[in-house]
C-alpha cells in the first residue's frame, strides 16, 4: 500500500514500508483501539509507530518530527476526540514543516456520534474523519485508494 505522502509533497527521510504513526489524544487513556489500529495497519504492510494514549499535542508534534511518518492516524473513543482533535490539528497545521503531513482521525469522537463533527474536523485540517459507527471498511478503502489519489494529483 502506498500512502499519499508524495501527493502532499513531503518526502520522509526513511525508505521501505510506509511509516504510520498511531496516537491517541491528550485526554484519552483507552489503548485497545490503538492496538487494533496498529495490527490492522501492519497487516496492510505498514511500519507502525504506536506512541500510545494521553499524548499531549506538543509531544505528538515532536514525535512527528522524530519519526517522519508518511501518515498520522489519531484514535479517540472517550467522547472528547472531536474537541481534542480540533485543538491538536490546529496546533500541528500551524507548524510549517507539518502543515501538509497526512493526518486522519477516527473512533467514537463525541458523545452524540461523530458524524456531527466530521466537516468541522476536516475544516480544522484533518485529511479524513472516520466515524466508529461506519465500521472499518471506509478506512481500509481510504488506504487502498491512496495510490490513485497520488496519480490524480500528479497528472492534474
Ligand atoms: C475498556 C474500556 C475502558 C477501559 C480502558 C482500558 C484500556 N487499557 O484501554 C477504562 C476502564 C480505563 C476506561 C475508561 C474510561 N472510559 Co471507557 N470503555 C471501555 C470499553 C468497555 C471498551 C473499549 C475497548 O477497548 N474496545 C475495543 C477496541 C478494539 O475497540 P474500540 O475502542 O471501540 O475502537 C474501535 C472503533 O472505535 C474503531 N476506531 C477507534 N479509533 C479509530 C481510529 C480510526 C482512524 C479508525 C478508522 C477507527 C477507529 O476501531 C476500533 C475497532 O473497531 C468501551 C465500551 C465499548 N464496549 O466499546 C468504553 C467506552 C469507550 N468508555 C467510555 C468512557 C466514557 C470512559 C471514561 C470517560 C469513563 C469515566 N467516566 O471515567 C474513561 C475515560 C478515561 C480517559 N481519560 O480516557 C465511553 C465513551 C463514550 C463515548 N465516546 O460516547 C464508552 C464507549 C462506554 C460507554 N458506552 O459509555 N474505559
TL;DR?
This is B12-binding domain-containing protein. This protein is α/β, with parallel strands linked by helices and 156 residues long. It contains 5 helices and 5 strands; from the N terminus they run E-H-E-H-E-H-E-H-E-H.
Question: How would you sum up this structure, described in words?
Answer:
- This protein is of the alpha/beta class.
- The chain has a single domain, classed as Cobalamin-binding domain (Rossmann fold), CATH 3.40.50.
- Helices cover 40% and strands 15% of the residues.
- The chain contains five helices and five strands; from the N terminus they run βαβαβαβαβα.
- A five-stranded parallel sheet has the order 2-1-3-4-5, with helices on both faces.
- Strand 4, helix 4 and strand 5 form a beta-alpha-beta unit.
- Helix 2 crosses helix 3.
- The N terminus and C terminus are likely disordered.
- Bound molecules: cobalamin.
- Cobalamin (B12) binds next to helix 1, strand 3 and strand 4.
- The site of cobalamin (B12) has 23 residues, from helix 1, strand 3 and strand 4.
Number of helices: 5
Beta-strand share of residues:
15-25%
CATH hierarchy class name: Alpha Beta
Largest sheet: 5 strands, parallel
Write down how many β-strands occur, each being a DSSP E stretch of 2 or more residues. Answer: 5
**Unreliably modeled segments:** 1-11, 148-156
- Quaternary state of the chains: single chain
SSE inventory with pairings:
Blueprint: E1 19-23, H1 32-43, E2 47-50, H2 57-67, E3 71-76, H3 81-93, E4 103-107, H4 118-124, E5 128-131, H5 137-155
Parallel strand pairs: 1-2, 1-3, 3-4, 4-5
Bound molecules: cobalamin.
Amino acid at each position: 500500500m502506498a500512502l499519499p505522502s508524495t501527493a502532499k509533497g513531503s518526502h520522509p527521510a526513511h525508505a521501505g514500508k510506509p511509516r504510520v504513526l498511531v496516537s491517541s489524544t491528550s485526554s484519552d487513556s483507552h489503548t485497545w483501539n490503538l492496538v487494533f489500529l496498529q495490527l490492522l495497519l501492519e497487516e496492510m504492510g505498514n511500519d507502525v509507530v504506536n506512541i500510545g494514549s494521553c499524548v499531549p499535542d506538543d509531544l505528538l508534534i515532536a514525535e512527528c518530527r522524530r519519526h517522519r511518518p508518511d501518515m498520522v492516524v489519531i484514535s479517540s473513543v472517550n467522547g472528547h476526540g472531536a474537541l481534542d482533535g480540533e485543538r491538536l490539528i490546529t496546533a500541528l497545521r500551524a507548524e510549517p514543516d507539518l502543515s501538509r503531513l497526512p493526518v486522519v482521525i477516527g473512533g467514537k469522537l463525541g458523545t452524540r456520534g461523530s458524524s456531527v463533527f466530521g466537516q468541522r474536523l476536516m475544516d480544522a485540517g484533518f485529511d479524513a474523519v472516520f466515524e466508529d459507527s461506519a465500521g472499518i471498511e471506509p478506512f481500509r478503502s481510504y488506504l487502498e485508494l491512496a495510490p490513485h489519489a497520488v496519480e490524480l494529483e500528479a497528472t492534474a
